[in-house]
Design a protein that fits this description.
Blueprint (H helix, E strand, L loop, with lengths): L1 H10 L9 E5 L3 E5 L9 H19 L1 E10 L5 H8 L4 E9 L20 E5 L8 E5 L6 H9 L9 E2 L5 E2 L3 H6 L3 E2 L5 H17 L16 E9 L1 H5 L3 H6 L18 H38 L33 H13 L5 H13 L4 H9 L1
Parallel strand pairs: 2-3
Antiparallel strand pairs: 1-2, 3-10, 4-5, 4-10, 5-6, 7-8, 7-9
Helix pairs in contact: 1-11, 2-3
């Protein structure tokens, strides 16, 4: 991606340090534009800033719906939902991509129509376990992994790709190098349907654009997403232990007066009173939510692992071991990525010749020779 980012800077479609534009902010609805109608800042910076704004509003109001549109490539979608989970919030995110040619064929189709349109969900988990993070492309495999396979001269399993004629293929090179053929959606019609929903929610609902309308001439993708950021306390209040912690006070049967019955002049004072009174209940609700999440996760993870030679471990779409020699176990959403991250931090990241070639290309764009880059690595 480095060389593509550099080309975008040269073309003027990527402007480092460009500010985002807040188009609407009601507290519970936030609409942010990243400027890619012409030129905008790095998508990772814009998306991180926008999500932090949504987190603050969800903490204040219980919910914030964030529409981020016209943003340069945001990278890994789960980064932003995980940011919300790190603040004790739930986040649900639907992303679409435009600006570059389509990559994924719809179910039953032979030609690409959409990007890999990812979605992500993150849920905070108290205690020793990491937060849950479900983050995936709606294609069988992400396009970047096809590029890696092509660089390493490896074949993909059947069911990942079709060639330019729509026939199944295991050769990643034509797709990776010439964008011939198409990726297939995961889960057949289910993944294809989810990809379309990401296109509609991320592209149409936000007003950011869809693959059929946005020019497909950019060096790197333009992303749009809709994200719901939720405070569990706003949805758990009044249930179970949370209800026992704090009951509303009132006349007779204990029912609290409806705000529709409060005179206008007293409304602000009544809202302040309720906010103060609800603080203990909100904390109890968050604790009840966290305890229930822990129970569900523990039960989920307690399933007996499949044996090493089980046929499900070698079929289409099966995953290789994250780390060689890792004992088999039930893996939670996000756990596989955490294991891989730890392994790479310990042993380093494999950079093949194709990846290094992209780095050299990027260096040439700013006047760095291959020798100078090699010297930087040797240091």
């Amino acid at each position: 991606m480095i060389s593509k980012y550099m080309k975008a800077v040269q073309l003027g479609t990527l402007e480092p340090n460009a500010p985002l534009d807040v188009l609407k902010d009601t507290g519970t609805v936030l609409v942010v534009d990243g400027g890619q109608d012409e030129s905008g800042g790095f998508g990772q910076v814009v998306a991180h800033h926008a999500m932090r704004m949504a987190i603050e509003r969800a903490q204040r109001h219980g919910i914030c719906a964030l529409a981020l549109r016209n943003t340069h490539h945001i990278g890994r979608a789960g980064t932003y939902s995980e940011l919300a989970a790190s603040h004790g919030l739930v986040a649900i995110q639907f992303v679409n991509g435009t600006g570059t040619p389509p990559l994924v064929a719809p179910f039953g189709g032979a030609e690409p129509r959409l990007s890999t349109n990812p979605m992500s969900v993150a849920v905070p988990v108290p205690g020793d376990r990491p937060n849950l993070s479900l983050d995936f492309a709606t294609s069988v495999v992400a396009s970047g992994k096809v590029n890696v396979a092509a660089n390493r001269q490896e074949h993909l399993a059947l069911g990942h790709l079709v060639d330019a004629e729509g026939e199944p293929t295991t050769d990643p090179v034509p797709f990776a190098k010439e964008r011939e053929g198409a990726l297939l959606p995961f889960g057949l019609h289910k993944g294809s349907g989810l990809a379309l929903m990401c296109e509609l929610l991320g592209g149409v609902l936000t007003g950011g654009g869809t693959m059929d309308r946005f020019p497909q001439t950019r060096p790197s993708a333009v992303n749009n997403f809709i994200a719901l950021v939720l405070d569990p306390a706003s949805f758990r209040a009044g249930t179970g232990a949370a209800a026992a912690e704090a009951k509303p006070s009132g006349d007779g049967d204990g029912a609290e007066q409806s705000l529709s019955e409060v005179p206008t002049e007293a409304l602000e004072a009544e809202l302040r009173r309720r906010s103060a009174a609800s603080a203990p209940e909100a904390e109890a609700a968050r604790e009840a939510f966290g305890a229930h999440v822990q129970e569900v996760v523990a039960d989920f993870a307690s399933a007996t692992p499949l044996r090493d030679d089980h046929p499900y471990k070698g079929g289409v779409g099966s995953l290789p071991p994250v780390v060689e020699g890792l004992p088999p176990s039930v893996m939670l959403p996000g756990e596989r990525e955490l294991v891989a991250k730890g392994d790479r931090e310990e042993r380093g990241v494999l950079v093949d010749d194709g990846m290094w070639g992209e780095v050299l290309t990027a260096g040439e764009l700013v006047g760095l020779t291959a020798g100078e880059l090699d010297a930087l690595v040797d240091e």
